[in-house]
Design brief:
The chain is an alpha+beta fold. It contains 6 helices and 9 strands, in the order ββββαββαβββαααα.
Length: 278
């Protein structure tokens, strides 16, 4: 098993559960790029220079500093960060159990898994997991990770407990300044048809049905460029603007999934062409 990122305890009431925190997300298989000098194709290198002495500085001489005034810094060492430990540094203390449906998705940030640390916490771990599942609530508290305190939510994830870091309320911007419609402006019949269309396209959640097609296409472009083949750009298809909302809804309801099938068919055809070209 991978090394735990954090070791501590979950606490609720007088119950404490020793746990280990593990990553829940795999690193994306992204294509990495380097900056090159267009003239000769050589790598662009970044160096750490002292702005006062105009010399390169090795990592061992670099420290963290906080700017408390214009051009005025105070240096912080590892010992200083250690002194800043708060009471909950090694504890996720659940302050409240909140209905999961009441939390806006905008608040959620990064997921982790928790596993019981040692046999002593197994029973309490299972008890908390099943109680959360039964009540439909999540445990809300704070946790310190990487020298920062995070709001976090604890919830069941199958047989495991998942802890997801969250954004504090002051970190979310208000949409009040956006030019969004205040009222509806549509007819009741249009709302009924939109609801009907949503129901017609409703399905269960299948995360495996969604792929990173952009990276796939970009990878093929890179292969073609390496082999010296001519790259033919795919024309971007723009949907026609809707001039008659009701007519668009009525047409969509006649064959709600037809445009999705056609879109997927087009993707398959483009993939076949790229494979033939490769």
């Amino acid at each position: 098993m991978a090394r735990a990122l954090w070791k501590g305890t979950i606490s609720f009431g007088l119950v404490t559960i020793p746990v280990d925190l593990h990553v829940a997300v795999e690193s994306r298989e992204e294509l990495s790029f380097h900056l090159l000098h267009q003239k000769d194709g050589s790598r662009i290198d970044y160096k750490r220079f002292c702005s006062k002495e105009d010399v390169e500085v090795p990592w061992k001489e670099i420290v963290k500093g906080y700017e408390y005034g214009k051009g005025r810094y105070v240096q912080l060492s590892d010992q200083d960060f250690a002194r800043a430990r708060v009471e909950g540094t090694q504890t996720f203390a659940i302050r409240a159990f909140v209905p999961a449906k009441d939390i806006d998705a905008l608040y959620f940030d990064h997921p982790y898994y928790l596993a019981p640390s040692g046999k002593g916490g197994v029973k309490a771990y299972a008890l908390l997991r099943d109680a959360l599942e039964q009540t439909g609530r999540v445990g809300i508290g704070t946790i310190v990770l990487r020298q920062r305190e995070h709001l976090a939510a604890l919830e069941p994830a199958g047989r495991a407990l998942a802890l997801t870091t969250m954004r504090f309320s002051h970190e979310l911007r208000s949409p009040k300044s956006l030019a969004v419609p205040q009222g509806g402006g549509y007819a009741k019949r249009e709302l009924a048809m939109a609801t009907q269309l949503i129901e017609a396209l409703a399905s269960g959640w299948d995360p495996t049905a969604y792929k990173d097609t952009y990276t796939e296409v970009l990878r093929q472009v890179i292969k073609q460029k390496i082999s010296g083949k001519r790259i033919t750009p795919v024309a971007a298809k723009r949907p026609a603007p809707v001039t008659d909302l009701r007519a668009a809804l009525e047409q969509s309801l006649k064959s709600p999934r037809q445009h999705l099938v056609a879109l997927e068919g087009g993707r398959r055809e483009r993939r076949k062409k790229r494979r033939r070209a490769a």
